[in-house]
Design brief:
0% strand
Length: 197
């Protein structure tokens, strides 16, 4: 065997080993980063789910208070003062979690996702100010916040699917368009039926 062949074989082996190591490390870091993103999205979606459920409960309570005289069965939906106090304490903790996520967000979340979170937070403050200035009554304020929390939760489920590459962006967009079209159809059908009754 020739010395040149041995040197060439050794160099090729070293280069291939180095490339294999680099590719393995790249894949390892990419998977680790994906795990971090997945964990962050799961934590955020968990917080948004808490908002969605909590604001739905408080909206149902406000609705029951307003229409209790028309339907006595709504009394079961009204929160007691103790439950309402615990609710607001829990909601304050959820807001703190959301603020922490927003603070750490630029490391993981896209700019558009952070803008949605900030807009939700700002909308909550606007509704609270409008409620305090008597521009909104309690029921309207809670409905506005409940709807905002529900929409944000649904938006972030789709954002997470796209960002974590669990579903292609075009499929998410098409599903949203079809959902919107179905809603518009149902609304138009209901309006049509209401006009001819």
């Amino acid at each position: 065997m020739n010395i040149e062949t041995i040197i060439v074989s050794a160099l090729i082996s070293i280069v291939i080993a180095w490339l294999t190591m680099r590719l393995a490390l790249y894949r390892f870091y990419r998977e680790k980063w994906w795990d971090k993103k997945a964990t962050a999205y799961l934590e955020l979606i968990d917080v948004l789910y808490d908002f969605k459920k909590d604001y739905e409960i408080v909206y149902q309570s406000a609705f029951a208070e307003r229409f209790l005289d028309q339907d006595p069965n709504l009394a079961f939906d009204i929160l007691s003062s103790e439950k309402e106090k615990n609710f607001w304490i829990r909601t304050e903790g959820t807001h703190e979690k959301l603020s922490k996520i927003i603070g750490l967000g630029p490391l993981i979340f896209t700019e558009a996702a952070l803008e949605k979170l900030s807009a939700f937070d700002e909308r909550g403050e606007e509704v609270a100010k409008a409620f305090n200035d008597d521009e909104f009554d309690k029921l309207d304020a809670y409905q506005e916040i409940s709807d905002s929390a529900d929409k944000l939760y649904d938006d972030f489920k789709n954002i997470a699917l796209v960002e974590l590459k669990l579903k292609p962006r075009h499929k998410v967009i098409l599903e949203n368009v079809w959902g919107w079209m179905r809603i518009q159809y149902v609304r138009a059908k209901d309006d049509y039926n209401a006009n001819f009754k």
